Amino acid sequence: MKRVNYHTHCARCRHAFGTEEDYVKKALEYNMDILGFSDHLPFPGDIFGMRMPFRELEEYIGTVLKLKENYKNELKILCGFEGEYIKGKEYYYENLLKDKMCDYLIMGQHFYEDSNDNMINVYKIENSEQYIEYADYSIQGMKSGYFSVFAHPDIIFVNNIAWDDNCSRASDLIVEAAAGNNIILEYNANGYRRGMHEFVDGERYQYPHIQFWRKVVEAKIPVIIGSDCHEPIQVYDDTVKKAYYDARKLGLNIIMEINS
Question: Phi and psi of 5, rounded to 5°?
Answer without folding.
Answer: -150, 125
